Amino acid sequence: MSIEIKDLVKIYGEQKAVDSISFQVDKGEIVGFLGPNGAGKSTTMKILTGYLGQDGGEAKVCGISVKESPLETKKKIGYLPEANPLYPDMYVREYLDFIADVHKVADKKARIEAVITLVGLTVESNKRLGQLSKGYKQRVGLAAALIHDPEVLILDEPTSGLDPNQIIEIRDVIKRLGKDKTVLFSSHILQEVEALCDRVVIINRGRLVADSSISRLRTEGSAAGTIRVTFRETLDPAKLQQLNGVIAVLAVSDLEWELQSEEPDTVKKQLLELALQNKWNIVSLQSENRSLEAIFRSLTH
Fold first, then answer.
1. pLDDT by residue (tens digit) across 111-120?
2. In this structure, are 175 and 290 located in the same domain?
3. One domain for residues 77 and 209
4. Mean pLDDT score of the chain, rounded to an integer?
5. CA-to-CA separations, 57 to 4, 100, 167, 232, in angstroms, rounded
6. What is the CATH number of the domain that holds 162?
7. Cα–Cα distance list, 7 to 23, 271, 294 (Å)
8. Long-range Cβ contacts of 61-67 (<8 Å, 24+ apart)
9. Helix or strand or coil: residue 262?
10. What is the pTM of this model?
11. Angle 143-146-149 (CA atoms, 0-180°, nearest 5)?
């Protein structure tokens, strides 16, 4: 395993920021690491990269203990933190040259040009870092994480601040890298996670609440089906909540409702009967697998 976490614990005062979580990530996997703000994602990533020490459990990178050999594990990791630390007075190539020296990169000039091209920095590569937009600063951070060609990439909100076109470009970069590297990345943009990952690890309040493929989560009980129904009339949502098998009712608009249920076919039949009894006009009625957003809400709400 390229990343191995077992019973990991981190405590701040009386709060367990990370509470005995365990998971593994293999080479060639791109795994989404999800959770609400304060769930412990960034803390876990900082422990993996050696920026924080754990209070219990194990964290290993490529079979090497982060606690016992932090320098060796850092050589194998490329890390883009959420708060991307840059020197605003340095030029792009100057900064990457500095990072390459830290990692003792051989033939660093060629490597710098390679990562500039890879992350799409060529157009802005002659500017000072302080002159760059937030999106291009993210690209510089990603280039710095890649400069020493690490085996493991740990990316905390890598597409933060990027416009839609830039997001697609960086998504393609991560996909290519994920073919022969291990990628663990955190994002609040769940569409990005769905586009990049087959598997997600979700934590809430420091505890692991899911570690599975997205397709499997959609078919498990915690990820029941969704029924979308649109009426011509407004109505009391309490009547929808009373239907057998309905777990939750969400108002999409004044006329459109989303019902979560483990028995969507049964609920659809009840909806038709209820509409007939109350002389409601149904404009549309359909069921679908729940989105990752709905799964995330149900596990972390």
1. 999 999 999 8
2. no
3. yes
4. 90
5. 11, 32, 35, 56
6. 3.40.50.300
7. 9, 46, 28
8. 61/2, 61/3, 61/4, 61/152, 62/2, 62/151, 62/152, 63/1, 63/4
9. coil
10. 0.77
11. 150
> Could you give the number of structural domains in the chain?
2
Instruction: Give dist(CA 126, CA 233) in Å, integer.
Output: 60
Angle at 170 between CA 167 and CA 173, to 5 degrees: 150
Do the beta carbons of residue 89 and residue 82 sit within 8 Å?
A: no
Ranges of the chain with pLDDT below 50: 222-223
Tens of pLDDT, residue by residue over 218-227, are 766 544 578 8
Q: Tally DSSP H helices, then E strands, for the chain.
A: 11, 14
Residue 91: DSSP 8-state? B
Q: Are 11 and 34 in contact (CB under 8 A)?
A: no
Q: 214 and 252: one domain?
A: no
**Per the structure block, which two tokens stand in for 273?**
């009967």
Q: Which residue has 């990027």 as its token pair? A: 162
